[in-house]
Amino acid sequence: MAWAIRRVGLSILLIWIAASIVFLAIRLVPGDPAELLMAQGGAPADPGAVAALHTQLGLDRPMAAQYVDSFRRLLHGDLGESLQDGTPVAGEIMRRLPRTLELIGTAAAIALLIGVPAGLAAALRRGGAFDRASSAVSTLGLATPIFVIGTLIVLIFAQLLRWVPAGGYVPLAQAPLRHFGLLLMPACAIAFGLASTMFRMTRTAVLDVSQRDYVRTARAKGVARRRVLIHHVLRNALMPVVTVLALQLGTLLGGTVLVEYVFNYPGLSGMLVDAVNARDYPEVEGIVLVISILFVTLNLAVDLLYAALDPRVRQG
Amino acid sequence: MRRLNWLPVAAVAAIAIVALATPLLPLPDPLAMDIAGRLAPPSRAHWLGQDQYGRDVLSRLLWGSRVSLGVAVLACGAAVALGTALGLAGGFLGRLAELLALRSMDIVLCFPPLLLALLVVTLLGPGAATLVPLLALLYLPGFVRVVYAGVLSVRSQDYAEAMRALGATRLRIMTRTILPNIGGPILVQFSLTMASAIVLESGLSFLGLGVVPPAPSWGLMIGAARSTMAQAPLLLLWPCLALSLTILAMNALCDALRDAVDPQRAPRPAGLRGTLAPHAPSLAPDGDALLALRGLTVEIDTPAGAIRPVRDVSLRLSPGETLALVGESGSGKSLTGLAAMGLLPPAARVVAGDIRVDGRDLRRLDETALRRLRGTAMAMVFQDPLSSLNPVHRIGAQIGEAVRAHHRLPARAVRERAVGLLRRVGIPDPERRARSFAHELSGGMRQRAMIAMAIANDPRLLIADEPTTALDTTVQAQILELISGLKRQGGMAILFITHSLPVVAEIADTLAVMYAGEIVEQGAAAALFARPLHPYTAALLASVPGEDGALPRSIPGTVPAPHDLPPGCRFAPRCAHRRDACEAAHPPLAPVGDDRLTRCIRWRDFAGTRPSAETAA
User: Residue A88: inside a domain, yes or no?
Assistant: First the structure.
């Protein structure tokens, strides 16, 4: 228990550090953000407009005051207003975040449902035809960047075969079937690489655990093969698999950028790319912060889950 | 270091050479536009066709490889240099440096990589000048950790200690002992990072946030070809292919390096399958014997060819009898025990002989029938109780599992039975211990729990494979006491496998001594202890401190490897009594008097020398 509390405390500390870094990065990097923003046309910025923007962003106040102020607002869930259209950043993030999470969740589910059973099957018949075929496919999955797979999926299924539209998004309430149809393509693009990783991890872990003494003990007790497989082999093999899945999901929190861009999917990452291109600092700051918090929380969840799976961790 | 697979090394080298040699090749200018040749298909002048501005695709592809690889190499090189310095500093310069070097890396790790990249690009603007330091920063934590972990493991090793004792400075120790030792892991991390950097660079360029056009880059080419994919799908294919093949080669290189550097990752024969093939004619039942092995021969396939670590082993064990199977490591005694359980590792198989437990021929049984016998007819206790207990299940549940494997009982009854068994093996407070995990128990208690598990269904045959070897001496005695107590309680037969003769002096009725895969002497325990009829038995007896205070004498030499056995008597090269005749022919296991067998042709001459005289000599 003390371990869990310490771990939660560390995560809160990390989130605070992340928020501070985002705050400082924007203010300390050479170049005035307001000037940069206003000067984008190539012409020098209008001093009046720059000053107005400074006031709007609070950049004219002392750094310490800005810092305290931004954290106070942060605690109230206020991430400021977009420079592009003045709408609250937090509201737009909350509108888009569920879409990105749905995409990641679907991809993870597909990857787990394919990767883990395939890895188990390959390990049980090591060197067999299935093992060789699936290992080759996973090698390909690991070597193909996510945007290449996405682009190829669009090329093949939307352009050449014309089975599906090239991308987009429809709310679930509006047209459930179409919603899932559009979700499936980007999810599959993500799941290909993810399932390959899951497959590899499961296969390696099962092979490793099968050799362990306690599996031999279980067999020596006369425990049925299926039970040995599930309660002893898979139960222990899943620990590294879960860890890797969580690490991958964390990477995906930022990594859906590419897939959302390819499939024109209006998630959080797409918003980030737009914000980056428009130099919309409050938006960039807000999105980076939200994703970092999710990322740190996810890592925390993994550690806690790991402790639940492995009694040995709880002691350390 | 194991042998390196050179194929991926050659592939990566080929890619690097092409990238380096691109300026020397007679290629069209990758930036030269030709609006007339817009989206032109492959031709003699343009082997891979022309892009949407009529630029030569092949030329752009090759020049693009320079950009992609160049950015990745520069970034990874910087990350290696800085990461190694930080990791070494963290490992050597005291707690504060350790804290700063490692914790600062945690901060980098609290942003998803691509997100951090986007944040930095927002602030600094796109371009290669941003990409290199950015990627270096992203991959820094990986190197710091690899180096730090390497330093920690090397620092504690003998040669680093020795150098420190010799007065070497820290810097000298670092450069002379540690760097060469962590070179392997760094190399692996480098190849891993290179692949990742190429992916990230191309991804950012694809979004228009990496390399700035019109410079050729694979990511940019894919991004640009997307808009014309309906007219010219091939334009999309080439950079995709180049990118994937490069990463494929890098990944393969990484795997090859890892296999070569880390022996633990070396492929091992594995799998859960490994039942005995039901074949071979069966001999007549062995009377009332509980365990009867006849001419058991086990073969294992190794890269160097098949070996036979157990050859022609015959043993007979009656109800209530305790037989000690004694021999050095590598003598084949554990494999013999596993064969009697039908639990040989997948690579091993019985190629000849007969295994009968309670009259049933194990080689004729399928896995289901074997499973029913395991735990009921025969049970096994293993050497290392910590690794033999499942770390994630409670002790009580693991014992209960042994019960439930053979009996349909309500959960409550199973629980009570498990607690009762723990009590029976002398574990105090069994209700509480049943809820413990293996790591929460002491070594002695773990072994008691293993024994409780083995006797859960009152097996008639207990095979104990070095059950006391991993334990402290005092605990050893307790476990031996427990086993002999169990022996007195019921008619359980025990096959006690050990490398130490004194351990079994109290408990064994009969002894079988194994050497290099075969039995060299067999007989009643008391007679063997009093008058060994094989020099190896005598040497084993002499290798432990005698009760009269005689000093132990080790046996010179080592057990011969199974693929390199001496032609005659297997023990001859290490034997003080050898004659030419010993090395001429392989001696048979011959009966000598009452129920005694020996494989020594000189046993008559040898029988004169008592073990005590031998020790004193």
Answer: no
